[in-house]
Fold this protein.
Amino acid sequence: MVFAALEAPTVPHDLPAAIDLLRRERKAVILAHYYQSPEIQDVADFIGDSLELSRKAAATDAEVIVFCGVHFMAETAKILSPGKTVLLPDLAAGCSLADACPADAFAAFRAEHPEHLVVSYINCSAAVKAQSDLICTSSNAVSLVQQLPAERPILFAPDQNLGRWVARQSGRELTLWPGGCIVHETFSEQALLRLKLEHPEAEVIAHPECLPNLLDLADFIGSTSKLLARAASSDATSFIVLTEPGILHQMRRQLPHKTFVEVPGQDGCSCNACPYMRLNTLEKLWQCLDTMSPAIELDENLRVRALAPIQRMLEMSR
Ligand code: 13P
Ligand code: SF4
């Protein structure tokens, strides 16, 4: 018997046009985080921070969600919209924060603090969400923690830099899980000080996942969306931006009359770009729409347990 060789589909020359065609055929919506590459942001239906993207994933009536972000984001979309197909262009797009908080070690941590309320940053696995009382993102963490009963102690996981900042802003004492973002922890204080000397008029805007010594040098701290909004509303015309440089694409597009400077990592490395986010490419986006894979699958029992603290977050941050 003669078998025809299985040929890999030819990658179209005009990927944005091919993606657009498949998006219509599949009745798909393409959601992208600000840390995606400019080419991906340019084909997305919606670009946002973690909170905005989860709201969008909960509200969309599309049959297919293509999540251009990292695994915990696509998993959150599946938790919120179990009836939809949720695609992630590269399944290996993880997150150092989620990896730093394994579910069994987290269970042991909780067991040591049985009287605490558990607040987890959305950058964690479904198995950690399922063990949490409340999920937060970098844009609502302070306000959510402030709403919790004053007499209850609080565990905060997995980002200790965000946790320290939230504790300071909210006036609440938090017991922290010792996790960190490999991207935001790489910014060099020396490079920032040098840039401040070169651009004395610039406002320093930073994501709260940065180390405390860098946050101390910032004029404004907030989630990616809040940094974008600040750049628009501020009287300043130049900004030193302490977060993943993907956000600069929207800043420059929406505010062409303003100047944005990115901060390099230690020793001038380009490790300020998130290696997980950047695994997604235009070609993989086209391919996942073509093959309808890889799709996020989740045990239903786990999904239901992970859903409750996410819904609580959405209700409390309306
Ligand atoms: P945002 O809450 O700003 O979307 O941050 C997500 C993230 O992964 C930052 O590293
Ligand atoms: Fe995770 Fe940091 Fe990448 Fe955000 S930037 S996805 S926190 S590794």
Summary: The mean pLDDT is 95. The pocket of iron/sulfur cluster (ligand 2) is lined by residues 35, 70, 95-97, 123, 181-184, 209, 244, 274, 276-277 (CB under 6 Å).
